[in-house]
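testing teh design pipeline on a random one, pls ignore if ur not involved
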C-alpha cells in the first residue's frame, strides 16, 4: 500500500496526530495513529512521536522501515536524519541527508538539514559551509536559517559564535524553541551554567516532555554543583593545612591565618554561586531538588561540609576532624554526582518539531 491510497479518515487521523505531536502531546499522537495502515508516512510520524518521548531505539527502527519503504520521499528522509542522529546512528543520518540533498539540492529544508548534519563530520565541514551559505542566499532573514547557522557552529565546536547566531535567530523569532534549547546547550559547553539553566528551563517550562531539554537542565544544575564541590573541597584542604603543626620555625600563625582566610574566601565564593543561581533560577532549582532525592542529598552534604569548614576555627580541640570530615563529604558528593551525571546523559541538540520552512 502506498501513501496515496489513504482513505479520507486515515488522512484526517494522520493530520490530527501531527497536530498533537507539534502541540507537545506525542503520546496522544501515537494513540491517534493506532489502526492506520503502516505506510512510510505513518511510520515516520510514529517514529517522530517516539523520538519526542526519548524512546530512541524504537524511533530509529520505525524510521528505518519508513526510509526503506520510501527511499525517495523527502518528507520521510528529512525527519529520519534527526531521528538517526539522536539514536546514535550518525552514518545513517548522514546518508539520509545526502540522499535528500541529491533529490532536492535547491530546497531550503534540504539545505538546512544537510548543513546541520554535515557539520558533525570534520571531513564534511566545507560541504556544511556551502550548504548553509546557499540557504542564507535563499532566505537571508529567515529565523530558521539563522538558527541553523547556529547549529552548524555548534556542531563544529564554535560555541561562542553559535550563541551569537542563536541570539540573532531569537531576535527574529523569540519563541523559537529550537534556538532556545541549542543556545542553552552552547552556553553549557562554555561553562555558563546559570544562563544555560535559564535557557533550558524556558523550554522545559512550556514543554516538560522534551527529554533532551530536561537532561540539559539537569546537567546545567550539576555543573553548578561541580563548581560548589571544587570551592568547598578547596576550603577543606585550606582548613586542614591551617591547623597542621608545621614542626619547624617560621611564621606558623601567619600561615594559619592565611589558610583560614583562603578557606573563608572559597566558602564566600560558594555562597555567591548559590545566591546567584537561586536569584536567577529559583523555580527550576526547587523543582529539580524536590524531584530528586539524590540531588537533595548532594546539596545537603555540601552544605554540611561548608559548615564544618567554617566552624573548624572555633573547635581547635577537634582538629583535624572537621576539615577531614568536610573533605570526605565532598568526596561522597563527587561519587553521588557521578551517578547523577550518568542519569542526565549529554543533552542532544534541539530538534525542530515543525518543518524548517
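output:
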Amino acid at each position: 500500500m502506498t501513501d496515496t491510497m489513504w482513505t479520507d479518515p486515515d488522512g484526517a487521523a494522520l493530520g490530527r496526530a501531527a497536530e498533537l505531536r507539534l502541540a507537545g502531546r506525542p503520546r496522544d499522537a501515537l494513540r491517534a495513529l493506532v489502526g492506520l495502515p503502516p505506510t512510510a508516512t505513518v511510520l515516520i510520524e510514529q517514529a517522530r512521536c517516539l523520538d519526542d518521548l526519548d524512546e530512541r531505539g524504537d524511533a530509529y527502527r520505525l524510521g528505518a522501515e519508513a526510509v526503506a519503504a520510501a527511499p525517495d520521499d523527502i518528507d520521510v528522509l528529512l525527519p529520519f536524519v534527526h531521528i538517526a542522529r539522536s539514536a546514535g546512528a550518525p552514518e545513517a543520518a548522514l546518508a539520509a541527508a545526502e540522499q535528500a540533498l541529491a533529490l532536492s539540492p535547491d530546497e531550503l529544508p534540504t539545505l538546512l538539514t544537510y548543513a546541520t548534519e554535515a557539520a558533525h563530520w570534520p571531513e564534511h565541514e566545507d560541504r556544511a559551509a556551502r550548504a548553509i551559505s546557499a540557504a542564507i542566499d535563499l532566505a537571508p532573514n529567515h529565523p530558521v536559517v539563522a538558527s541553523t547557522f547556529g547549529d552548524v557552529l555548534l556542531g563544529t565546536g564554535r560555541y561562542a559564535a553559535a550563541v551569537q547566531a542563536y541570539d540573532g535567530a531569537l531576535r527574529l523569532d523569540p519563541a523559537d524553541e529550537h534556538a532556545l534549547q541549542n543556545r542553552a546547550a552552547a552556553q553549557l559547553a562554555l561553562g555558563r551554567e546559570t544562563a544555560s539553566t535559564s535557557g533550558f528551563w524556558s523550554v522545559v517550562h512550556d514543554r516538560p516532555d522534551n527529554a533532551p531539554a530536561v537532561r540539559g537542565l539537569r546537567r546545567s544544575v550539576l555543573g553548578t554543583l561541580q563548581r560548589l564541590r571544587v570551592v568547598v573541597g578547596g576550603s577543606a584542604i585550606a582548613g586542614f593545612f591551617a591547623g597542621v603543626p608545621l614542626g619547624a620555625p617560621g611564621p606558623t600563625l601567619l600561615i594559619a591565618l592565611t589558610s583560614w582566610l583562603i578557606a573563608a574566601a572559597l566558602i564566600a565564593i560558594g555562597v555567591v554561586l548559590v545566591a546567584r543561581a537561586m536569584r536567577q533560577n529559583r523555580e527550576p532549582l526547587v523543582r529539580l531538588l524536590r524531584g530528586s532525592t539524590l540531588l537533595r542529598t548532594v546539596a545537603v552534604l555540601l552544605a554540611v561540609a561548608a559548615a564544618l569548614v567554617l566552624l573548624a576555627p572555633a573547635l581547635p580541640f577537634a582538629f583535624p576532624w572537621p576539615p577531614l570530615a568536610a573533605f570526605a563529604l565532598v568526596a561522597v558528593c563527587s561519587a553521588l554526582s557521578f551517578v547523577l551525571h550518568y542519569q542526565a546523559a549529554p543533552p542532544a541538540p534541539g530538534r525542530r518539531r515543525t518543518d524548517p520552512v
